[in-house]
Amino acid sequence: MTTATLIPPIPKPNAPGPRTVPWTVPDFHRACEMKFWGDGKRMILIRGEVVELGPMNPLHATGVDLVNEALRVVFQGWRVRVQTPLVLGQATDPIPDLSIFRGGSRDFLATHPATAALVVEVADSSLYFDMTTKAELYAKAGIPDYWILDLEQRRLLVYRDPAPVPEGAAYRTQLAFKAGDTIAPLAKPDAVIAVAELLP
Fold first, then answer.
1. Residue among 139, 151, 141 nearest 115 (CA)
2. Confidence class of residue 109 from pLDDT cuts 50, 70 and 90?
3. What pTM was computed for the model?
4. Which of 4, 13, 67, 80 is most enclosed, with most CB atoms within 10 A?
């Protein structure tokens, strides 16, 4: 014989219940320095949430190397940074695969850069994330030139002309370049880079 009864509805409390606490950029950087997530994990900070990227496979690493080599030739006298912080506000650091800045190696001793002339992401499994979330973040930050090296479809996606939209920000120009095409960065319009040179 059971004596169970129905649980009566509970009134909503006046005090708020448990809540998530968003990460700040300084907290995120401190956790990275302390190897909070362990060795070998690739983490980024997006709108206060820590996002784990998958392990970097050899194809992705080769793509980063090839883009790095090509951009260093074109951007002599500029700073080419590979997988280092790019602070886009108090709660976002997407740590792009490559970012290009005016200036020298010692210009960012006290703070990380907050903008770039060009940002490049190398994408395999992250393609959708790079085309949506990261594109919106870079457009909102006013990054004028954003490239995605799409390893699976062997193409270079180029996003330009960032502008506000009702949902946040977006790039008004979005073009896809194939392996036989060439591209010139906005910051170096006389340069010619063969897309095939960027592709593994």
1. 141
2. low
3. 0.87
4. 67
